[in-house]
Amino acid sequence: xxxxxxxxxxxxxxxxxxxxxxxxxxxxxxxxxxxxxxxxxxxxxxxxxxxxxxxxxxxxxxxxxxxxxxxxxxxxxxxxxxxxxxxxxxxxxxxxxxxxxxxxxxxxxxxxxxxxxxxxxxxxxxxxxxxxxxxxxxxxxxxxxxxxxxxxxxxxxxxxxxxxxxxxxxxxxxxxxxxxxxxxxxxxxxxx
Amino acid sequence: xxxxxxxxxxxxxxxxxxxxxxxxxxxxxxxxxxxxxxxxxxxxxxxxxxxxxxxxxxxxxxxxxxxxxxxxxxxxxxxxxxxxxxxxxxxxxxxxxxxxxxxxxxxxxxxxxxxxxxxxxxxxxxxxxxxxxxxxxxxxxxxxxxxxxxxxxxxxxxxxxxxxxxxxxxxxxxxxxxxxxxxxxxxxxxxxxxxxxxxxxxxxxxxxxxxxxxx
Lengths: 192, 215
Description:
Helix content of chain A: 10-25%
Oligomer: heterodimer
Shape of chain A: globular
Largest interface: A-B, 35 and 53 residues
Distance between the termini of chain A: 25 Å
Radius of gyration of chain A: 21 Å
Low-confidence stretches of chain A: 11-21
Strand order of the largest sheet of chain A: 1-2-3-4-5-6-7-8-9
Radius of gyration of chain B: 18 Å
Shape of chain B: globular
């Protein structure tokens, strides 16, 4: 028993907290009653396929709320500000479902940046005022509507030696608006 | 539902207790990982085993394992690990080398891990023993779609160990807590059924605490 205690004491010397130097980000599941009324009113009349799940995201940049649900078999994510104003709507799609011209422009852009890449996730981002964006959920047919859209693409890409994850935001013309490189979360507890 | 789960857990524990060859105890472990490059890590760990019950209740120290492992990342979610463990048990020393292949994938909020391992045991005046292992595990956050700092999560693993003579199966549920971006702690149970082919009567229940630290 004494050996067990000493074992913990020795290794506690290696522990150090660097939490205060890192960006703070936290995402928690919340109930509908915790959401601003304005956001709830936007969601209310939309006939989603499944129950809406609400999340609250807290970071150094502030607080936002996110509603996630399925509509016509696509996963939608609606982001709202702390006061309940709609920021954007994202729809998860398969890359091959994008318009051909946009798809080709995005692929060309990625081919100039990477030796090898694989598209892992594609989302269409819709930005506009509440009234315009609500039209997205009134259409039951497959008509094409010309919304102001961006495309958020997550890829696994290799420039020279190693693969990393990248998040790109392309506009409708395939021009890069934002690029972010990130690594996967520490998986030590899944490997050992 | 909670009452049903509690009843199942209680009956299962009573079943463990009434088995022949039933041992129970504690398995505290610390795992320290140091990044050497974008593709390599050096992992060291120390694990202690203390027996609480072995036909009678008596707390006694059983063994201690020290391990050192080199981890090579071949893909973003795949690693090969090559390691060495030295075990001090009673008055003897057992050396073990091992090779792991890990594959971790994410499906929405669920993280799924697969591990295949090969082990070689060396002990003075004994022949070399070999063992293969396969482990499946998954991790689920208890709040939201990802495990953030200062949040709890559940982890469950199921492992099969075969030493070419006999089979051992392990079930391990854990409750984890992410202390910071660099460390986390998991507390849980490790139930082992050994000698399945020979007699199926060797049962062990370990209370595990594992502290994962990345530096």
